[in-house]
Amino acid sequence: MFSSRFHWDFHQNRLTQMLAEKRRAGSPILDLTESNPTHAGLAYPPETMRAFDNPRALDYQPAPAGAQEAREAVAAYYKSGGHEVDASRILLTASTSEAYAYLFKLLANPGDNVLVPRPSYPLFDYLAAMDSVEVRQYPLAYHGAWTIDIEGVAAAITNRTRAIVVVHPNNPTGSYVKRAELDALVRLCAERELALISDEVFYDYGFAPDPHRAGTLAGVTGCLAFAMSGLSKIAGLPQMKLGWIAVSGPADLRAEAFEKLEWIADTYLSVSTPVQCAAEALLRAGEQVQMQIRERCATHLSQAREALTGSCANILAVEGGWYITVQVPRVRSEEEWTLELLARENVLVQPGFFYDFASEAYLVVSLLTAPEVFREGIARLRRQLDGA
Q1: How do 195-199 and 161-167 pair as beta strands?
Q2: Rounded CA gap, 54 and 239, in Å?
Q3: Which residues are CB-neighbours of 298 under 8 A, at least 6 positions away?
Q4: Helix (H) or strand (E) holding 325
Q5: For the chain, does the N or the C end have fewer beta carbons within 10 angstroms?
Q6: Could you tell me if 188 and 221 are in contact, meaning their C-beta atoms sit under 8 angstroms apart?
Q7: Angle at CA 312, nearest 5°, toward 308 and 316?
Q8: pLDDT value at position 5?
C-alpha cells in the first residue's frame, strides 16, 4: 500500500530504548548530544521576537525565489563575511533539508545517484530516497587531520552520478574543505559534467583561522555549484524555517539552474512571508547568538581536552562546528560504550556508527550542551574510561 521509499527499519535501537526507560523512571540524564540551540540555555536578544512585529507580514506577495528584501539580507550576510554574492543568485527555502530536495529534483532522475562524504550526518539517505535518488559514499581520511580522498571521490563516480556533496565543515568531524581539495573537486565536476553541492550551515563556527581553508562555494566559477545555509545554525533559530541556496558557476549553467529552481520553488511556495519580512533583523540579532555559541564551543573543547588528557581516549582533530569525535579503545563496541555510559553514569553520547564511521570505536559529543551539563558529563565520561 505504501511507497517503496519507506524501506527503513523503524524499530528503536537499544540506545533509544534504554534512554526512554531511563526517562520514564525519572533518571536525570546528562545529554551530551544536544544540538538544539533553543534548548542550550543561550540568551536570545529581544530583537529576535520584535523582528516579527511587521504589518507587511499580512500581505502575501508570492515570489518563487523569495522576497527581494530577504534575499538582499542574505547577500548582506555573505558580504559581512567578505564574500560578494548577488541577491539575484539566492533562492530561499524553508530549510537546508528542503534545499537538498529541490536540488535533487533539479539534477537527478529516479535511479541517479549523488556522492556524499563518509563519515557524515545520516540524513542524506533519507532525503535522497524521498526523491528516488541513490547515495554513493566517498571517504574522508584521517591521518592526524581529516582530508577528502579525491581519488576515492573519482572512483565513486558512475555514469548515473549527478552531483558531489561536500559538508563545509563536516558534521561531525568538524573538518573544512581545503582550497586544494576544492580546486580538485571543481576540475572533476567540470570534466564529468557534475554539480557541486556545499552544505555550509556550520561555516561560521571555525575554532581558528586557516589560510588553507576554502571560502564559501557561493563563489565557485569553474563548475555549476550550490552553497546552502540558513537561520537554523547561523542565528541559532531552527524553528524560524528559513534557508537558502546560492547558485554559482558558469553564467549559462547558473542561469538555467536558477530558472528551473524557481519553477520547483513555485510549485511548493513553502517559505512563509513573516520570516522573510523578519530575515534582516533575525540575521542581525543572530550575531549575538552566534558569538555565544562560538565562545561556548571553544570553552567546551578546551575543557574536554583537559578532562580526557591522560585517559585511554583521544579527541580527533577538529576545525569547527558544534561536535567532537572521541576515539575510545576497541575493547568493546561503540554500542556497548554508549549503553554502559548511559546505564552506569546517566550520560548520553552518540556512537560513531550513527554517522557511518568506517571503523570503531568513536563517540560523538556536542559542544553546544549547557555548561553545567557538559562539565559533569565529561567528568563522568572520564570516570567510565578509567574503569574500562
Answers
A1: parallel
A2: 18
A3: 207
A4: strand 323-327
A5: N
A6: no
A7: 65
A8: 82
For the four alpha carbons of 282, 283, 284 and 287, in that order, the dihedral sign comes to positive
Q: How far apart are CA 211 and CA 279, in angstroms?
A: 31
Phi, psi of 247 (to 5 degrees): -95, 130
Cell numbers for 149, please give them: 580522498
How many other CB atoms are there within 10 angstroms of residue 136's CB atom? 18
Q: List Cα–Cα distances, 385 to 256, 314, 318, in angstroms.
A: 55, 11, 21
| pLDDT at site 106 | 98
**Considering the chain, what percentage of its residues have pLDDT values greater than 90?**
93
Residues 18, 12: Cα–Cα separation, whole Å: 10
Contact between 341 and 347 (Cβ < 8 Å): yes
Reply yes or no on domain 14-43+287-386 having CATH 3.40.50.1820. Answer: no
Task: List where CATH 3.40.640.10 sits in the chain.
Answer: 47-285
First to last CA, the chain: 49
Q: Say if residue 119 is preceded by a cis peptide, omega within 30 of 0.
A: yes
CATH class belonging to 47-285: alpha beta
CA distances from 205 to 43, 68, 222, 235, 368 (A): 18, 27, 26, 11, 11
Where do you find CATH 3.90.1150.10 in the chain?
14-43+287-386
Instruction: Extract the C-alpha cell encoding 162.
Output: 549527478
Return mean pLDDT, the chain: 96
Query: Rounded CA gap, 233 and 229, in Å?
Result: 8
Which residues, 6+ apart, have CB-to-CB distance to 191 below 8 Å?
none
Query: Please, which residues bridge with residue 31 across strands?
Result: 348
**Residue 347: φ, ψ to 5°:** -115, 130
